[in-house]
Amino acid sequence: MKNNSKKSIHYPAALLACLWAPAAMAQSGVTVYGLLDTGLAHLTNVNAAGDSVTKMPTLTGSFPSRLGFRGIEDLGGGLSAVFTLESGLSLDTGAMAQGGRLFGRQASVGLKGDFGTVSLGRMINMTYVATLKSDIMGPNLFGISSIDPYLPNARSDNAVGYLGNFNDFVIGATYSTGRDASAAGGPSATGCPGEAPGNARACRQATGLLGYETPLFGVNASYDILYGNAGAANGLTSSDNSDRRVTANAYFKAGQLKVGGGVVDRTTRAATGVTDSDLYFLGMSYPVTPLTTLDAQVARKDVKRSDADATLLVARLTYYFSKRTAAYGGVGRMKNSGLSAIALDAGGTVGIGKTQTGVMAGLRHLF
User: Fold this and answer.
1) Measured distance CA(328)–CA(293) in Å, rounded
2) What is the pLDDT of residues 111-145, one digit of tens each?
3) Domain limits of the chain?
4) Got the DSSP string for 245-260?
5) Under CATH, domain 12-366 is a member of which superfamily?
6) Does an H or E element contain 164, and which?
7) Which of 13, 191, 250, 311 could cysteine-pair with 335, CB 3.0–4.6 Å?
8) Which DSSP letter does residue 345 get?
9) 119-140 burial, b for 16+ CB within 10 Å, e for fewer?
10) What is the Cα–Cα distance from 202 to 177, expressed in whole angstroms?
11) C-beta separation of 12 from 138 below 8 A
């Protein structure tokens, strides 16, 4: 692939194809790949005093930075051995992401054949896969990942996973015996290692996906339930506590326009009580020129029986120097109501009930 390619890139989310990438390879070998992405952002109302800040984000720009290795060995008879090792990187400091884990994004080995791919290890689960094609902004600094930080961090430790595609019907599932062994590293770390003798539900997690997906349109639904245990974060301090998400997602193309949207229904049964919420999102992507793509998204979080709702508006313009290198700029607005304090930028802060606006610009390179 030449760096000076001048073809339009209609699907920025294709940069995340490495999620279950071993399924796409057809010969023996090892591939080294990576993505470097960072920039600057300016945010208002980052605290109760209404102060503003200009910063280089830690978690993401338009996509989280990473370095990875994936491999495949042809075992004959249509069967292959596959593996993925992927590290997260924080370009603002050079530190490793996911709490300093060596391969915090993925670390799995598996078998691939006509039946699909079966993997074991730390892996992306089906909640992440479900929104991959319908969430136009993806893990952008301004996006639905700010409203629900779990969505771009939906990974499971100690997991067995399966993903298969049969005539455009997609089926997937994961089961974890201990969903998260780390207690450090932001929203992707919740300190629930599980595998506790005498407690079969401690820190267990199960996710599932069923969908129909083609290049022009697709629909899918996913189910995700995770259990807590002593010491776990987010109020899930007992194996009787749980956090459940059910998603329904869809996308379609009309000429060069792509539209995607969905809903995430969440019920958390924590030590502090039960919380129900719905997250709705709708976005579009359009190549305004052969080298420039405009993405926009609106989202709303509705917390039931509570005045803590939030509404998000965000837009991003990306200029492609090549298929591997792009510059981007974005604007966003998060309107918090009542007790809501959801920051516009992933991993950021905002004053309670305050509306936050922001601008961002960055550079991304894929290798």
Assistant:
1) 9
2) 999 999 999 999 999 999 999 999 999 999 999 99
3) 12-366
4) EEEEEEEEEETTEEEE
5) Porin (2.40.160.10)
6) strand 155-166
7) 311
8) B
9) bebbbbbbbbbbbbbbbbbbbb
10) 8
11) yes
